[in-house]
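User: For my dataset I need records formatted as: sequence, then structure tokens, nothing else. Please produce one.
Assistant:
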Amino acid sequence: MKPLVYYCRWQGASLRLRGRDETAVWGHLVFTADDGTEQPQEFHFNLQTRQLTLQKETGDELLQLDEMGVVVR
């Protein structure tokens, strides 16, 4: 789960977990705007492959993270 935590740090997001099993964690990445409002972003993170799926209105966005939480593709 360390890559996900690092990704949140690089992006300035808070991590709010909603669930976990042996293969994945899911919940919300929460971004705080300058006016103090929170903007939650649903996610699913595969622990084995380090694939982060961001659920957006336009469809899912799949990101591949390295061990330091940097997007590699």
